[in-house]
Each structure stands twice: as structure tokens, then as C-alpha cells.
Design goal:
Layout (H helix, E strand, L loop, with lengths): L4 H50 L5 E7 L13 E6 L2 E7 L3 H7 L7 E5 L5 H4 L2 H10 L6 E6 L14 H6 L1 E7 L2 E6 L16 H23 L12 E6 L17 E5 L5 E8 L7 E8 L2 E5 L9 H4 L5 E7 L1 H15 L2 H8 L8 H11 L3 E8 L6 H7 L10 E4 L5 E4 L6
Parallel strand pairs: 3-4, 4-5, 5-8, 12-13, 13-14, 14-15
Antiparallel strand pairs: 1-2, 1-16, 2-3, 6-7, 9-10, 10-11, 11-12
Helix pairs in contact: 4-6, 8-9
Keywords: Hydrolase
Pfam family, one: Lactamase_B
Organism: Desulfatibacillum alkenivorans DSM 16219
Length: 422
């Protein structure tokens, strides 16, 4: 029986309506997707521009991009501190992926053109190669200058690793110059022991990084070179060796407790001053004092208890100091011995005070220096971020230093507004 025309027409209209609604839905979804995409892009660009706006702020910002120790941690990256002042973004140490974290948090890493290393332990400079490349690829247009300890005797070294025969015979060459072999002596407990007259410096380190990253720079050159302002030469860094206390038999450049300006902005408003610290056999090692607009931030670097630290940190608004809590370490060592019979590891924990500063001594330094705020980083034993762990670590410090005490966490930012006179 033929379908009534009315029903047939209704079906046709229903199909047409469904098709129209379907097309409307598809169009709406497409437009919604585009709107979401535009919103995400806008937010991303807004964050980048906000990062640029930070550079215009007349105050000082201190960002902790890494607060950990050599032992890897899911919560703390290796040491890296960023300081934004006078329109510049300065980096102090990068032991891992600190600069990548800064980029993820929206800071303009392409504006980084100066890095200051406290010393050449891996947890303070292992991220240097990645930093050089990341800032270049991000759009850095000027050279990257790396300030760090000097090569003690200015020898021209090669970077060849030891051969198996050299390992077996107990010696291997660390540098080759005419009629002069510099040799490491392999043997416990001092393996490897470098010659007393040679300590590698920032020149040596950057030469090695340049060799390691040369294939990367050359391969990327075709892409980055399209920006004429960022030529391939920017994929490498320029070493700026700091003077040490005794340099190649010459008169000391500066001694213990003396601040030496190693960088000054054109306006003279921003200064970075270096001072020697005592980090056991890692000599020379440095701390830094950053001064801008009548305010000061001091970074201790790794150091044993040092009487001159209070002088170098005198009147600072913020003192950022490493710290080891010997009471906590002794408790850990006791458990290792009593429960596990591990006397070797227990001794390792107890020996940490030979290279670092006890938390109570840090508090005394802050008190003697008259600083406004004390921030702890590179804390030993490593602790999880959190109020309880941090309060246990700083126990007893507030009996000595009455100012504000913080344990730095990755991602923490401290802002110093401009001084009243500015």
C-alpha cells in the first residue's frame, strides 16, 4: 500500500531537519575547537609577554629553579637560582634542568646572557650545555657569558679520555703540552688525584661542552640561522674566568672576605660581586653578592663554616645559604649502624660537615650579618617539601636568628620591591 504523501513529506522534512542540525553541530564543534585553540594560544602568548613584563619591574625577583643535592629527587632539581634585576635575568648555577623549568613557568629564558657558577661540581653545572642550547633556540640574540673558577695554570688541554692501558697502569694523561705531561695518579683512597699545580677551570669545562654539542649546533644551524639575529655562534658560550686567591704564582687577585665586582651593568645600578668560599678540595669556589637599587641578595654556594661569610653578607635583604643538619644526619647514621650494620654509609653521613655548613652555624652567620631574611637551599639530608619536614630541619635556628627563615622549594619566587629611595 503506497505511503500517504503527508507521512512521506514528514519523513523528508525530518531528514532535512536532522541534516541541518547535524551540519550546525559540526560547524559549532569546529568553531568551538578553533575558539579553544585561539584561547590556548592567547594564554600562552600572554604568559610569554607577562614574562617580558617582569623584566621591566624595578624590584628584584629571586626564583629557585633547583634546590636539591647531587642525589636525584622527584621534588627537587639540582641547584639553579635565577635573579631578575635591572631588566636582566641572571643565572647562578644550573646542575640539571633549571632553565627548562624557568621556561615552563613562563620566564623569558631567551633573555639569559650571563651565568655565574659557584664551583665546578656536577650538581651545580651539569645543566650548562642544555642551558646554552635552550636559550639560543629560544631566541637569545647575544653571546652567553659564563663566569666561573679559573684554570689554575692556563695550560692548553686536550679532552681525550684515558685508554684501558692507562687505567691498567694506574696513570692517564689529562693534558698535553710540549714536553709536559700532566698525570692523574689512580689509587685508593685518593682516586683520582690531580697534580697539585693544576685545577681545571671554566675554560676547560666550556671547551668540553663545545666539543660535545658541536654536532647539535651545526645540525640545528639550518633552522635557527633563519633568524639573522641568532647565528650559530650563539650556540656556544664565552668563558669569563674569575680570579682566584693565588693565580699561577702571581699576586693574589683578592683574598678571603674580600668582595670583587665581576659584573656591572652599563648604568652601574646592578653589580655582581664574587667572594671566595671554602668548599673543601673544590678550590676555588665562590659565593656571590647581587646589589641593585640599594638592595642586596647573597648566595653562599657550597661552603664550610666560614667566618668571612657574615662580612660578605653584611646587611643583605636575603641570604641564600646551603645547610646541613648534623642532628638529623647523626640520627640517620645511628639507624644505619644499629639496624643495618652499614658503618661506611654512616661515616659518609657524619662526614658531610667537612664540606658544608651546619644549620645552626648558618643561623649564626645570618645573625652576625644582620640580614633581613634567610633562605636555605641544598639542604642535607634531603627533605621532602612540606611544613613538618622543614620545621624539623630548621629546629634551633630561630633561637639564634630572629629574622624570617625559609627552606627553598623548586618554583619558589621571592620578590623584593624597590627600595624607598628608588
Amino acid at each position: 500500500m503506497p505511503m500517504p504523501k503527508t507521512i512521506s513529506r514528514l519523513k523528508w522534512l525530518s531528514g532535512l531537519l536532522f541534516g541541518i542540525l547535524f551540519l550546525i553541530a559540526i560547524s559549532f564543534a569546529f568553531n568551538l575547537e578553533n575558539a579553544i585553540q585561539k584561547h590556548v594560544i592567547a594564554k600562552k602568548l600572554e604568559a610569554q609577554h607577562h614574562g617580558m613584563d617582569i623584566l621591566k619591574d624595578p624590584g628584584i625577583r629571586v626564583i629557585f629553579a633547583g634546590t636539591g643535592v647531587p642525589v636525584p629527587s622527584k621534588d627537587r632539581g639540582a641547584q639553579c637560582i635565577a635573579v631578575i634585576a635591572n631588566g636582566e635575568l641572571l643565572i647562578f648555577d644550573d646542575g640539571g634542568a633549571g632553565v627548562r623549568s624557568l621556561a615552563a613557568w613562563g620566564y623569558p629564558i631567551h633573555k639569559i646572557n650571563k651565568v655565574f657558577l659557584t664551583h665546578l661540581h656536577s650538581d651545580h653545572m651539569a645543566g650548562l650545555g642544555g642551558l646554552i642550547g635552550a636559550t639560543w633556540i629560544a631566541g637569545r640574540t647575544g653571546p652567553l657569558r659564563v663566569y666561573g673558577p679559573d684554570d689554575s695554570n692556563k695550560l692548553s688541554h686536550t679532552l681525550y679520555p684515558p685508554t684501558s692501558q692507562e687505567y691498567q697502569t694506574g696513570t692517564f694523561t689529562t693534558g698535553r703540552v710540549p714536553d709536559n705531561r700532566r698525570v692523574f695518579e689512580l689509587g685508593k683512597p685518593d682516586f683520582p688525584k690531580a697534580p697539585k699545580d693544576y685545577v681545571p677551570g671554566i675554560d676547560y669545562v666550556l671547551r668540553g661542552i663545545s666539543m660535545a654539542y658541536e654536532p647539535d649546533v651545526m645540525e640545528r644551524n639550518g633552522n635557527v640561522q633563519t633568524r639573522e639575529s641568532a647565528p650559530w655562534e650563539m650556540g656556544f658560550a664565552i668563558p669569563h674566568p674569575l680570579p682566584d686567591m693565588e693565580s699561577a704564582g702571581t699576586a693574589p687577585d683578592f683574598g678571603w672576605g674580600e668582595l670583587k665586582t665581576v659584573y656591572e651593568s652599563e648604568s652601574g645600578k646592578l653589580k655582581v660581586k664574587a667572594f671566595l668560599v671554602d668548599h673543601y678540595a673544590c678550590f676555588p669556589s665562590y659565593g656571590y653578592r647581587i646589589e641593585c637599587g640599594g638592595q642586596a641578595v647573597v648566595i653562599s654556594g657550597d661552603t664550610e663554616k666560614m667566618t668571612y661569610m657574615a662580612k660578605c653578607a653584611k646587611g643583605a635583604d636575603i641570604l641564600i645559604h646551603e645547610a646541613v643538619n648534623m642532628r638529623m644526619l647523626e640520627a640517620i647514621a645511628a639507624v644505619l649502624e644499629e639496624k643495618y650494620g652499614d658503618h661506611e654509609k654512616a661515616g659518609h653521613y657524619r662526614g658531610a660537615s667537612a664540606h658544608h655548613t651546619d644549620s645552626l652555624d648558618v643561623a649564626r652567620t645570618a645573625m652576625e650579618a644582620g640580614v633581613s631574611r634567610l633562605v636555605l637551599t641544598h639542604v642535607i639530608p634531603p627533605i621532602d617539601p612540606g611544613f613538618i619536614h622543614e620545621r624539623i630541619f630548621v629546629k634551633g635556628m630561630d633561637d639564634i636568628f630572629r629574622g624570617e627563615i625559609d627552606v627553598a622549594r623548586d618554583g619558589m619566587e621571592i620578590y623584593l620591591p624597590p627600595a624607598a629611595s628608588e
